[in-house]
From TrEMBL:
TM stretches of this protein: none
Keywords linked to the UniProt accession: Kinase, Transferase
Short name of one Pfam family: PfkB
Enzyme class, first EC level, given as a word: transferase
SUPFAM superfamilies membership: Ribokinase-like (SSF53613)
The name this protein goes by in its record: Carbohydrate kinase family protein
Gene Ontology MF terms: kinase activity
The EC number(s) this enzyme carries: 2.7.1.-
Amino acid sequence: MTVVTLGAHILDVLARPVEGVPAGRDTIVVEEIRATAAGAAAGTAVALARLGNEVVSVGAIGDDDLGDLLAAIMNRNGVDVTGLVRRTADQTSASVLPIRGDGGRPSLHVPGANLTLTPAAVERGLLVAADAVHLGGPDVTSGLNDPAFFAMLEAARANGTIVTMDLLSNLPDLLKGAAAFLPHVDHVLPNREQAAAMTGESDPERAALALRAEGPATVVVTLGGDGSLLATADGVRHLPALPVDVVDTTGCGDAYCAGFVTALVRSRPVAEAARWGTAAAATVAQGLGSDAGLTDLDAVLALLD
């Protein structure tokens, strides 16, 4: 199954556990430091590849060492990175995340080249030929908010391509801009805060229904440790999270999307797709980084037994 991930590409550098910044030139010894592919497109691309999909990722990164490392990580995980464009005037987007002992994750972030992505970087035929296209972070790749790109999505959907969408930020202004994509996607998967910011509804169920009224057939609102809400034509249902020991929540949303899309391209019902997403997120939560613990689809689905 071929999936195109399109949007935000970020290099994450994570360390755990970190309870505070050392004073002066003091050093804190931590248990683990990792660099991972992250962002709602790159992180999801790696997770999709780990789950057995053929993945092509499209986005903008810098022509710099960070971009070389990000592309190498993705390529090593089986992602086709020929869709990445390199920018000489902008650095690769990156984040530094000191992970607390309870799994909390404050961050230092540079938006970088993600802000330069435009429809010119997207090959229309690639979208039309794909089994699914996952828009990862259109709120931070606002250059895609363009009638030319929406026409590409509609051509792909007319040819049977499934279009899903996830978001990256919690900034209201960016999220309101992402609402323009809703009529052009089949399934949208915001978290609780994003759904509230986009709709003005603090209740996740009302927010899910409001988003669905804008066009998507399915809205999944992820709720962290409280599970997720699935809104379809049949109504709204709650799916509980799986009980696991949480190490780091980084990338859990990306993993949820990867599990969800993996099920959809295998013609599974959306309710089952949400369960696959739940299991993928639970897997990643048990380790450090957006790809932690993801080995293959069978191992993820074993959590549902």
